[in-house]
Write a structure and sequence with these properties.
- The chain is α+β, with helices and mostly antiparallel strands and 603 residues long.
- It is built from 18 helices and 23 strands.
- A hairpin with a 2-residue loop joins strand 21 and strand 22.
- Helix 9 runs parallel beside helix 13.
- About 12% of the residues have low confidence.
Amino acid sequence: MRTSATRHTQPGKWRILPAMLHTLVLVVALSLATVTPAATQGVGKDARPTLWVAFHCQGNPGLATDGLSRFHAALDAGATWLACDVSELTDGTLVVATGTDGSTARAPSPPAPTLDEVFHLLSAHESARLAIRAERPVLDRALQRAVERGTGARCGAVVHERARVDVARERLGRDAAIWWTVERDADVDGVLAEAAAAGATLLMLHPDDATRTRIVAVHTAGLRVGVIAPPDRDRTAELIAFGADTLLTDRPAEARELAERQQRFSARVAELCDAHELASLAVGVVHGDRLVLAAVTGEARPGEPATLETAYRAGSVTKTLTAALLATLAADGTVALDDHLSRWLPEAELPDGGEAITLEQLATHTSGLPRMPPRLRPGPREPYGSPDAAALLACLVDTNLDNPPGVSVAYSNYGVALLGLALTRAAHANDFATLAEYRLLRPLGMTAAWVGDPIEDDPRTARGELGARRGQPAYPWQLGSFAPAGGLVATLPDLGRWVSAQLAAERGEDPAGLGAPLRATHVPRHDVAPGRTIGLGWFRVEATDDRPLLVWHNGAVGGFRAQVEFEPARDRGLIALTNRGFAPDSDPPAAILAAVRRLLDER
């Protein structure tokens, strides 16, 4: 758990358009040469092509003087898919939505293009493709017409039932693209199973809080993921970062920019993973409330690629959670920062001078306690020995203070472990892991994170490796009562939410009712070195003329290294996780995040 204080990281009858697309008039799919990792997200080496959908024309009258020119404009911007709704084929006119309730009407002047005009357009753009949505009889005739016009091989169907899949396959062939739409309130898991069984190639989702995890489920089922892009740029970027294959949006230029940015980011992370000879590497960039860039590359375990769902041990990053719990319990009056440790652990036999130790001093490494208790004899396989609470307190008998309390900063895992024990006692919690889960992890949506000792060969977590030889597994340290100092296990998205909460607090917001306590942990309380201070749990590199304030913490435990950092002035945070440990004088996550910072600042 080493750290360095001197370094810083519808339902209803479907007529023409389902409610899912009720705001779309024309939708154009933009194909970009980005990459995604096998099974989940856009990352580095294990790549497959990604398709980004890019454009609808409603609310953009300046883009065209007539309906067909809107298609031209989108194709000229790099689009390769057109998604059209066909109401009837008496004259081949395409009908588009005009109301937010999903009502439809023939498009007013300028007129919508006819289907034959679109087919002609496809012939003029070799890379263009067409996805047709219609009621079943009309869909059948429209697809037949596409075949007759010689464009059937470049057409697909937008459906929401098996019968239309059968129609499309019959007309267009086995390899036709089938986009299966999902109602807003539908049981996505049930629809996913139906779509996969029917042979759909893409599942279209609404963007909501569950979209990120659903993207993983859809990919696991072997389908691509389509998402209607939200109006917010950062939310759109997050969907791209999480692996959306298809994006419906009225901002094609922005979609291209965000997708290409993710591609560059993924490639750079893959390079950094190779350069540092890491088993795997997960890196994320948070802006505001969103994880806007995310890349995972390498193997979580031999033969198993790391993904956004892979959990890593975060080591001493846990100390920022423990400090946040202190601030949270202080805010509700359960404890006070200046409470003496002896108030909550009265049975502890404190060393000489230890009666003056406060909870704040434990969180700022100014208690005078040593890094580790002398009674514990660290070994290469089990340096912490998994002590229980009684053993942790018993170690105090042989402990001497290195400095009087409150005098200077001296990093202490032991002090933070005692702080966690005191907070658990004060909150009447069963254990520290439960306290952390209910007061921090659940409220902030860190649903795949926990605090505690990992289970060996747990499929949720990466396997730690030693630094001396690539592929050599590290023994999974058992921390026991040292969990408050280093027991956090989390995915990249989990830590993205943790960083987002810090940034929200700095903006004066109140994420999950934790805004004030989180802000309190960022306030500088002691000097560490010139230009460097410490708050509650967080280290700070103070602002200069050349750089803004950087708040950070790193961690190292049993074959894992991590770093989390954020810059309030830029509303930006960075995360790096790897499952390969290194010698004490080597800190790859810090170097990696420095490289990522340079990459972002060069833009």
